[in-house]
Structure formats: C-alpha cells, structure tokens
Amino acid sequence: GYENNWYTGLRGKSKSLNLEVFRINPKRIFHEAKTEGRRSIDDGVSAKVITGYLRKNYGQNDLSIKRLEYHNDHVDSMLKLYKYIQQLIREKVRSKNTIEKLLYSSMPEILSLKGERYANWFLELLIKYPSKQAIQKAGIQNLTKIKYLNESKAIELIESLKVSVSKKTGPIEAMVIRERARDIKQLKSKIDTLNNELVKVAQKSLSTQINLLCSIKGIAEETAVPLLLEIGDICRFESGKNLVAYWGINPTIKKSGDRNYRIGMSKDGSSIARAVLYMAARNVIQHEPYFKSLYHKYRSKGKNHSSTMGIIMAKLTRVIFGILKNEKEFDAGVDSFNQNKKENLISSDQVQESGLDKPKRRYQKNFNQAPISKREYRKRKKEQLCPNMDIP
Question: What string of DSSP letters covers 122-148?
C-alpha cells in the first residue's frame, strides 16, 4: 500500500502530463523474472523486468487502456472499511481460539453445550460466572436470568460440571476467561454494526449492482457488497474464467508422463473472497432451484461434497460475471440455453471432419517396442484382457 500516494498523484496528473498509469499485479512480475532466469533481484533488475513486461503486454489484460477508465474514490473508502471489518473478524477468531483452550482445561463439559457458535447467552454466562465453582454456586435460579438460557439447559450444565474431570479453576484463569468473553461480545457487536453501515454506504453508489446480485435467491445484501468490493470494476475481467482464476477457484492439474497429480483449487486469490463465495454457494443451493439441481447432478455422478461445492462456486462466479457484465438479473433459462447451445455447436458432420469420433486412444496405436513404465504396462495388459472396459 505504500505505492498508493504515488499512484493517486500520477493518476491525478495523467491528463496534463499525458501519462498512462497502471497498477500491475506483483505476481506477474515475479514470474516474469523467473522466466528470464533472474536469480538475484535489486532495484535495477526489477526495473528491467517491469520494462520488459510492459513492452510485451501493453494494451492487453491488466495493461489494457480500459483499466485507466476505472477509478472510484468512494469505492476505495468502502474497501478500507471492509478490510477493517475483516481485521476485526480475525481478532474475534483469535479470541475464540484462546478462550476455547482455557475452557478445555478448566471446564471441558461446557464446550459441548455451546453449539457451533458462541451465542450471546454463552458469552453472558462466562462473563458473569467464569469458573466451574461460580456456575455451581449461582444455581438454577440465577442461571435462568440470563436471556435464552432455559431451565433444562441450566440443569444439564450444573449436572455435567458435578462430574467434571478438570481441575479447579483459579482466580487468574477465571479473570482471563471473563475478559476474553467480553472481547468476543464487543467484537461481535462492533462487526455487526459496521457491516450494517457498510451496506448502507454501498447502497448509495452500488445499488444497481447489489440489486442484480440479489436477484439470485440466496444472496443478500450482506453477501453482495463484499463480493462487489472484491471484484472492483467488472471491466477488468475479459470473461468469467478470468474472475474464477482471480479468486483462485480454478483447478490446477500437474501431469508428468503417465501419472496425473490433481492438485485441486489453485487458491491464488483472496481467501476472504473464497470464504464469502463458499457461504453464498451454500445459500444458493438451498434457495435457488437451478443451483440445487446442479448440486444433485454432480453428486449423482460420484463427486463428493467438497468437489461439488468447488464446481458450484466456479459456476456461481461465472453467473455473477454474466449478470454484472450484461446488467441483467439472474435467469436460469439463459444459462440452460447457453449450455445446450454449446453442446449442439458441433454437428455430426463437423465431428467426422475433425476426427473427434476416433477411438478412445486419440493419438496413435500402442507401440510395444517403445520403453514404458510398469504402470503403463499393467494398464495395457488390462486393456488386452478387457478391451471394452474403461480403465482410468
């Protein structure tokens, strides 16, 4: 971020000085230096690499003239608020991890009653009664005064602590538990408040884009705003595949000889964007019939849940790109039409001319005199015994 002052200043004087100012992805420069065989890097070498990259790619991708048209100070301000909220979320996670370790050593039985999340009643319980002795001394009558902590849950809590295997909670441990619980409660309230403020501010300048994304059942304003801030200007991307790669959802495959190593998602982009998109994918599967049918389609083909969620995330990203690019609300029929159009693009005559109807082995017949690996030898042997069987 130290380059922001230079970037902003040069952008402001670009017309008067006849300059074209770009912000280049540093990862591209890093790989450019690797391709040139640069082992040592200093300012002079970096300048040469950047100059060579500019010469080869000027007018394309991130050095396109279209990139100069996008600049919105209001969106930049929202992006700073969004990053601050993400920082608070990380602090909340750290506090949760710390308090969970303390509870595991002082009263582990209480962890099974809190559920998946730290609910407000659970945090209030730890603030008022941060030790095993304090909870037992409070009794059912005082515990039920806490909102959403009913009598049956209070009885279960007290009975479980009577047979606890943990040691006695000391005053210092109790104080740390109380303060951590207060931190989590304050952070939760602060995050919720700032998220609401972010949505209100975004509605002033991004209302059209927010409404377009909310046309997908399962995506609300709280999800649409972070996605739009992560995207920036949709004109930066030439296709939906570029946006998929930008968020690191694209699959990466390593292949060497007759062995394939499937790596999975590249995860090169923003982890925050992938986290938001994952939750959006879960919601659209539940509420949007089109995505729900896609999920069951791939599950029926033998894909596990994680692989299917990756497919849905990539599909949702391409749909988001199409919606923002064409400025039209989501219509499942349009996507289905595009899929059928792609399948029917190659006619039977074209298939025969291009040779796509050749046997499974596309390139040449087996030549047994060439040296092959043991894996390939076993594979060919199985093909001879069972020629009609599909062998991976």
Answer: HHHHHHH--SHHHHHHHHHHHHTTSTT
CB 228 within 8 A of CB 234: no
Residues with Cβ within 8 Å of residue 35, at least 6 apart in sequence:
none
**101-151 tens-digit pLDDT:** 999 888 888 888 877 778 899 999 999 999 989 998 999 999 999 988 889
Query: What DSSP line would sit under 270-329, residue for residue?
Result: -HHHHHHHHHHHHHHHHH-HHHHHHHHHHHHTT--HHHHHHHHHHHHHHHHHHHHHHT--
C-alpha distances (whole Å) from 125 to each of 182, 185, 330, 336 are: 11, 12, 45, 52
Beta strands in the chain, from DSSP E residues, in sequence order? 251-256, 259-265
Residue type, 313: M
Instruction: Please tell me the total number of residues recorded for the chain in this structure.
Output: 392
Alpha-carbon span 130 to 74, nearest angstrom: 44
Residue type, 143: L
Confidence at residue 21, expressed as pLDDT on a 0 to 100 scale: 86
Distance CA 185, CA 176 (A): 14
Asked whether 244 and 283 are in contact (CB, 8 A), the reply is no
Cα separation, 285 vs 218, in Å, equals 8
Q: What is the pLDDT of residues 292-332, one digit of tens each?
A: 999 999 999 999 999 999 999 999 999 999 999 999 999 88
Phi, then psi, of 84 in degrees rounded to 5: -65, -40
Neighbours of 308 (CB within 10 A): 19
Task: Yes or no: say if 387 and 380 are a contact pair by the CB < 8 Å rule.
Answer: no
Element (H, E) at 156: helix 151-162
User: Quick one: average pLDDT of 72-83?
Assistant: 81
Average pLDDT over residues 39-67: 85
